[in-house]
């Protein structure tokens, strides 16, 4: 669903390495959308003073120190959701009914926050548009 190209930006041949990787990927006859949506990651920015990527849409990280990892995670999540046609939703369900069980079967449940006062739960899910449509038809309230 997604290509992530992680580069060591401290390597003296980092630009040549990128060109080599892109050449190999193009020769694999991958779908063009995969190449166009690839996430470019510049690692080891902690070893370069005040590093800012000059390439459009490149993310600067330091895996060693954790710098930029949250932004990388968000970018990957955003692109995966777009590529798969899914979305993240928080749905309030009645715990007396079958909604929660249905969501576990038909989506990826991320979090469940039980609201004991009213017998409901807020459920954060990753769900496809078609599955969400079925959910709304089955559980209109």
UniProtKB/TrEMBL annotation:
It holds the Pfam family HflX_C. GO terms for molecular function: GTP binding; ribosome binding. Residues 1-84 form the Hflx-type G domain. GO terms for cellular component: cytoplasm. Signal peptide: none annotated. Transmembrane segments: none annotated. This is GTPB6 protein.
């Amino acid at each position: 669903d997604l290509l992530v190209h992680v580069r060591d930006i401290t390597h003296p041949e980092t630009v040549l390495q990128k060109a080599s990787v892109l050449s190999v990927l193009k020769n694999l006859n991958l779908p063009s959308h995969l190449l166009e949506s690839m996430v470019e990651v510049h690692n080891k920015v902690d070893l370069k003073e005040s590093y800012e990527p000059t390439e459009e849409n490149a993310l600067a990280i330091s895996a060693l120190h954790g710098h930029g990892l949250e932004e990388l995670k968000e970018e990957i999540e955003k692109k995966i959701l777009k590529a798969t046609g899914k979305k993240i939703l928080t749905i309030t369900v009645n715990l007396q009914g079958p909604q929660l069980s249905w969501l576990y079967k038909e989506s990826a449940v991320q979090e469940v926050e039980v609201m004991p006062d009213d017998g409901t739960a807020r459920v954060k899910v990753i769900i496809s548009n078609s599955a969400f449509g079925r959910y709304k038809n089955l559980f209109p309230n």
